[in-house]
Amino acid sequence: MKAEKVLEIVLREMRAYGNGWRSDWSGFDGRTLQWQLDNINSFAKKALTSDNDIDCTSGTDFKKENCGD
Description:
With 69 residues, the chain is mainly alpha-helical. The chain has one domain. The protein is 68% helix and 0% strand.
């Protein structure tokens, strides 16, 4: 996947997680945030070496861990 597309997805997902945490700090857990950011990192590394163009938007949990159901 092109780096520009990967960056677009990474930035969108980071904003989504940020907005989610901002909307409800009561459940904030640094370990969960770390897991979420690690997930974005893993996605980006995998996507940069992939020929497949993917885009995960609806529902998130980063679309059930990167486009699964």
